[in-house]
Amino acid sequence: MADARPAMEVVPHSDFVVQGISITTAVAMAIGVLVTGLGGTGSGNVFSYHIAFMSLAWVGCGFCGFWSYLSPEGTGTGAKEDRRQRHMMCMLGATALSVLGYIAIFKAHSDNGEGHLGGLQLGGDGAAVKRSWARFIHVVLGYLVLTGCAVQAVMGMSKKKVLEATGEKTVTWHGQLGRVVLQVALVAVLFGIWIQWNAKGGWALWAKILFSAVVAGALILLQLPSTPAPMLIPVKTTGV
What we know:
Elements: E1 8-11, H1 18-34, H2 46-70, H3 80-111, E2 120-123, E3 126-129, H4 133-166, H5 174-194, H6 205-221, E4 231-234
Antiparallel strand pairs: 1-4, 2-3
């Protein structure tokens, strides 16, 4: 006799909670910077797209791509190959958005006659940071992330090609470097949230605190040494 109660299937909570918060926050940051009423620099300012693209890249795509390997493996959408494909698409998206973000900030600085080193100036008296140290650190971290993206993209595609051709796992440090790149990117985002972009100082204080809390939470989750515990989600299955 069929059991009338719904069967319970183990579903990674990342699919419903963690990644949902990540994507929602990334989209909120991207939209928020385009709306002047929310403290953003507006859609007519090319600088805005630097923040929008980088938020989508790392708070959204980058975190979700890495988290797909942290959450438990199951069947169907949780199968390892599905997770590998999701990871690849998210990380390629993060890389592409990062390039667009850099193009936006490069153009913004060029249009304003500014340098591209976060206020660092080199002269006869040595080096000096003419703008805030927070901005300089943000820029340095950003260049490290872009370099890491280039390395990861090349190595990741090479790893995938060999794995599909021979089944051999190569470039075993790819995941470890990816974790570091993502962590550096999220720290750069934290600095970016609190940098004063305009006369108003950027987003409202409550928005800065909220976005910072989510990014800080993501950084904490990335420290997990093993797969997090799944939660049980009732799904309809055919009882026997």
